[in-house]
């Protein structure tokens, strides 16, 4: 399909639609984040109980109160590797569900599935790169499992970052198919589409998540939020270069999903209240 001319499209563009999809996209971004990272931390705590480890679960992270000599290799790999493994499976399931069953349907659920897949990707590849900077979290797994030294750990982390960049770029077609609005999907509106559906959810959603976790917010989680940009940036570039502009034949009207916005706020509030003060285990 050939892109429409900017002159023709600009006369028909309703800027309010881009504000609406930005609000809905931000809400979906936040909901997907809490689903993926909530599962990540819940699995981590469950494995910690299995190994009878002591720690503290706060709104931002799971921290341990054990001395270094109380750890052993199996516990380290199990605790810090279980979350990424579960997230990887979740991401694959969400993307397959989206690609095979949801992308041809109208509504917001398909975009939620895609954001779940993207956050799951970041919980594996982005997290390995971020945690290597701080030498914490997922970094412990290759460090203890492979024992190849710090240089190889850094190279592995950089490779993970490159994988995330590649997945972001090649995910452009999938992301474009997740939107219903004919106005938003016009190629002449592609820059507005990228800003409202990608940049705003990443930036505004990340700021909202960070503020919801202050003063518990850690450097590690801040890096996780920031390195989502390794996926969002090439995804945005891929969308700008891709002329695909089709959508479902009978899309839903573009309206603010107040239920989605309320759900995102409630989930963030419940998460904060449930883990503040922090939950002590072990």
From TrEMBL:
The chain crosses the membrane at residues 18-36, 75-99, 111-130, 150-172, 192-211, 223-244, 256-274. Keywords: Membrane, Transmembrane, Transmembrane helix. This is Uncharacterized protein. It comes from Hymenobacter artigasi.
């Amino acid at each position: 399909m050939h892109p429409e001319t900017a002159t023709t499209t600009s006369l028909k563009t309703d800027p309010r639609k881009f504000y609406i999809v930005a609000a809905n996209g931000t809400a979906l971004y936040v909901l997907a984040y809490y689903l993926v990272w909530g599962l990540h931390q819940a699995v981590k705590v469950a494995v910690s109980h299995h190994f009878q480890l002591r720690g503290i679960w706060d709104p931002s992270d799971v921290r341990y109160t054990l001395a270094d000599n109380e750890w052993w290799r199996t516990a380290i790999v199990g605790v810090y590797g279980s979350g990424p493994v579960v997230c990887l499976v979740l991401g694959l399931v969400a993307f397959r569900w989206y690609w095979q069953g949801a992308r041809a349907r109208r509504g917001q659920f398909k975009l939620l599935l895609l954001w779940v897949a993207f956050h799951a990707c970041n919980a594996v590849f982005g997290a390995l790169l971020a945690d290597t900077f701080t030498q914490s979290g997922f970094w412990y797994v290759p460090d203890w499992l492979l024992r190849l030294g710090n240089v190889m750990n850094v190279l592995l982390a950089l490779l993970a970052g490159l994988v995330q960049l590649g997945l972001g770029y090649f995910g452009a077609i999938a992301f474009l198919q997740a939107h219903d609005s004919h106005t938003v999907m016009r190629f002449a509106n592609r820059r507005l589409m990228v800003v409202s559906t990608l940049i705003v959810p990443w930036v505004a959603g990340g700021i909202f998540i960070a503020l919801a976790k202050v003063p518990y917010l850690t450097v590690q989680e801040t890096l996780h939020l920031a390195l989502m940009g390794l996926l969002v940036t090439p995804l945005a570039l891929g969308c700008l270069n891709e002329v695909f502009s089709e959508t479902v034949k009978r899309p839903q009207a573009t309206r603010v999903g107040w239920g989605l916005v309320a759900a995102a706020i409630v989930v963030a509030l419940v998460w904060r209240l449930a883990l503040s003060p922090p939950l002590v285990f072990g």
